[in-house]
Amino acid sequence: MPVKLPALANERLLATLRSRLTPPRLLVLSFLILIAFGTIGLKTIPGLYVGPGLSWMDALFTATSAACVTGLIVVDTATYFTPLGQAFILLLIQLGGLGMLTFTTLVILALGRRLSLHHEALTANTAQIVPDVDFKNLVRNIVRFTLAFEAVGALLLFVLWLPTFTPTEAAWHAVFQAISAFCNAGFSTFSDSLMGFQGSTGVLGVIMGLIVLGGLGFLTLEEVHVQWRRRTTRARQRLSLHSRLVLWTTAALLVGGWLVFALLEWSGGLGHLATADRFVNSLFMSVTSRTAGFNTVDHASVSEGTNFVTIVLMSVGGSPGSTAGGMKTTTLAVLLLLAVARLTGHTVATFQARSLPEETVQRATGLFVVGFAVVTLGILLFTIVGSVPGAPNPGGFLEHMFEAVSAFNTVGLSMGATGSLSGWGKALIIVLMYVGRVGPLTFAAAIALRRRSRRSEVRYAYEDVIIG
After folding, report:
1. 123: which residues sit within 8 A by CB, 6+ positions away?
2. Which of 178, 204, 243, 279 has the fewest CB atoms within 10 Å around its CB?
3. What is the pLDDT of residue 123?
4. Residues 249, 286: contact at Cβ < 8 Å?
């Protein structure tokens, strides 16, 4: 009997860990570990830098930006790091991107897969949201999709850049940009991001395709893939409401942003380009503003209207279960559908002959309120401690707002304020990047799990208030 006590204690310890290590906690912990790994690696691994190494603060900033697939930088990735250093950053981007695809998908299902008997009741919801996804091979399929898209993108970019660079240079630029684009990271091996390729429709087209695919979310990609394979059979069904909302909202944002950017910058930031290139670059601005972080124009030189629209698109971000950050397309769609329902006198938000559950509407509203509050506080603090006094480009309110929104929504675009950040400003951006990466998702998962595990609720008497 005494021999079995250690085994029994270990089983109890594992059971305790499993019960406490919920998906939200696992997400928070995994990214903390990845950021710590990146920070220590940037400080201790030899051969990462062309010159002197990063300080601890800058190493933490860079590791957080890479792991959270944001793209804000305090040093030039193209010139400050050796190929080994760039490869280490790319590793953090890939792990961060795969981590987000995996964890966001699992949390959407948190709702969950049959992780334990405690969560068994949640499984039914999963099948209703995305009925055609193979949950048994979920992680394997996520990795397969990711590597396949990145490989195809890298191959296309390699072919396009082969006439310009040596084969080795073309291959490395292609691999780095493909992974960074699909993961919506925005890091680049070019000092001016993609401004040197304003006239290269092929390069911008490949990058845009990778960004959009990475921002749609694995669940939608998998469901579209399944339906495509069934296109010639009678087993084909229409897409789930989730995927239809994702696709419709994404298309509307891309086209709307494209038209607005073309209108605002036709004679401004895009005025020196040929007509066809203006259309391509204005579309690229619409695509990349939704959390990718690459740029073909200098946001410090475009109009304030353009930067304000960019802030709005950055706030929306990509779709659930994707590498992109932001409020998410489905959250925006649900809020707009709720507004339409209320304005037309309906009590339930609907889309294409389907009603949205009240719990989903409440979760979307809660996410929006929490996100808005965090960003507002971040902007306030950034205007106070963001820049070094007397810095060459300290920036004004719009620059600080742009920087804070870009960090929280893990976009990576900047109007130039990153280079003048104070120590406190860098710390604030680090917190915003991390909270923006895991905070809203963790909040949503916590709500989902808490509400579904609650056995009884106490409801107090209703009493109305005047609104408006």
Report:
1. 111, 112, 113, 114
2. 279
3. 30
4. no
